[in-house]
Amino acid sequence: xxxxxxxxxxxxxxxxxxxxxxxxxxxxxxxxxxxxxxxxxxxxxxxxxxxxxxxxxxxxxxxxxxxxxxxxxxxxxxxxxxxxxxxxxxxxxxxxxxxxxxxxxxxxxxxxxxxxxxxxxxxxxxxxxxxxxxxxxxxxxxxxxxxxxxxxxxxxxxxxxxxxxxxxxxxxxxxxxxxxxxxxxxxxxxxxxxxxxxxxxxxxxxxxxxxxxxxxxxxxxxxxxxxxxxxxxxxxxxxxxxxxxxxxxxxxxxxxxxxxxxxxxxxxxxxxxxxxxxxxxxxxxxxxxxxxxxxxxxxxxxxxxxxxxxxxxxxxxxxxxxxxxxxxxxx
Length: 331
What we know:
Strand order of the largest sheet: 3-2-1-4-10-6-11-9
Largest sheet: 8 strands, mixed
Mean pLDDT: 93
């Protein structure tokens, strides 16, 4: 029987032989190995992904666990890890990302002593102009805060979060299979039961953009926008069921951020056309009818998309055609 750990890390890996070693090496620090468990979930790969995972499981049998399963998508890997986790907290690492070892050490030490339901850390993102940049660096207070402080803050991103495993299980969180971008559920559904949050100053996650076939590439976003829409619709329904609950407005703020992201995909990556304008108007009508709180909150975010969305609403969406000037669209 495995002893309980401080942190469970779920690594989704599908044909990641060229990236997986870097991700797993970032976890091989002698100060944290005995405090973490790492589930490397090979989601039906056809390359050497599983063999690489087995190497780490053989070298560190108390820390790394290699799992091979049929291809069911990202959500299925998170679900497997949640079912088997012994960690006090739960965190996700994509196989083409990695952790900053010093940040991970500080996070693990902190998780051992805190009682916060959610712990938030900044993350590195890049490369932009050849450099990695720190993202979502938030004001850090010494103590635990109410989750209510998030309802007007910059929206949560999966890469920032370590969530109490008990909170995830209490909410019976299961991510959809065979669908992209389902990490958004991890930023909304735990808020049903979470009551406290704590912020740390040191980045942990490194998110690298630029890999061919990456889900956040413009091509993938265009081809899989229906996945984004389906996720959004299900999270709207989740919020509708939680109206009147303590963290309802915080959940609304998170779901409206996903809505903004969908609008930004249309503005940045769809052709400048009447069809795209009609798509945006259609989504606006659906959002307003489905949950007016989410529709209203969408323009509260401190982002270019929220600003432009406000302008489109004020002008009956005629200002959509200013996209070229405002550089939202491809030229």
